[in-house]
Design goal:
Elements (H helix, E strand, L loop, with lengths): L5 H7 L6 H18 L10 H13 L12 E5 L7 H7 L4 E6 L2 H13 L6 E4 L2 H4 L9 E7 L4 H8 L3 E11 L3 H7 L1 H7 L1 E9 L8 E8 L13 H4 L3
Parallel strand pairs: 1-2, 1-4, 2-3, 4-5
Antiparallel strand pairs: 5-7, 6-7
Helix pairs in contact: 2-4, 3-4, 7-9
Bound molecules: S-adenosylmethionine.
Length: 237
Amino acid sequence: MFLCNGKTLFAEAQVAISELQLEKFETFAQMLIEKNRVMNLTAITEADEVTVKHFIDSLTCYDETFFAAGASVLDLGTGAGFPGIPLAIMHDDLKITFFDSLQKRLNFLRDVTTAIGYKNASFLHGRAEEEAHKKEFREFFDVVTARAVARLPVLAEWALPYVKIGGTFIALKGAAYEEELKNAVNALKILGAEVESVQMKSLPGLTDIRAVIYIKKVKESPFEYPRKPKVAAKNPL
Ligand SMILES: C[S@@+](CC[C@H](N)C(=O)[O-])C[C@H]1O[C@@H](n2cnc3c(N)ncnc32)[C@H](O)[C@@H]1O
């Protein structure tokens, strides 16, 4: 068993988890470590750190107020599957689309979802700035999640066009969250969104600041957003 302290760490984080869900995290962790030998997926490879900094951290974004049963979720810039795979393990009714610009990472996630028996997965390969202009994805998702993808003013422009009116964009952020929020005020206004709440989170054994920002989509995002690749980063709203 790779995650030998898994049960204790989830309990410390007050995450109620079944034996089956623990087994699925074990499967995912083993696949992640194995694949990481040949593909750049994560710098975190020690078992307790994987549990805390990837699995438990990902789950901090789950709040049932924002995730209705069976909700459609887009995990933008999912990488090695964070927060998407932990959400799929704990809430397998959610319909999660794993979205990344790197196909290899999506291939890995396809194998993971098969191994853990998660049947509600979809995979989207492309750039956030481009796929949002396709009719089938625009304002389609109940929830969009993103962890460690871009600064909030840029991320808001990439993510909010995918969120349906009344839906939520959830950004998992670190210590710079206040500064990012301040800098994103204009972007949120332009894109038709408002900050609903900011929840401070702590992780077992760590003192790092973690903030989960819930942003409500209140009206349509103007069609010109997101702008072409690299524009938002160079010239954020
Ligand atoms: C630093 S990783 C974070 C991965 C994961 N969310 C996590 O928290 O571990 C950022 C991911 O976002 C993807 N990404 C970056 N820019 C993107 C874009 N414009 N559209 C889609 N994916 C993007 C990258 O390929 C990478 O997998």
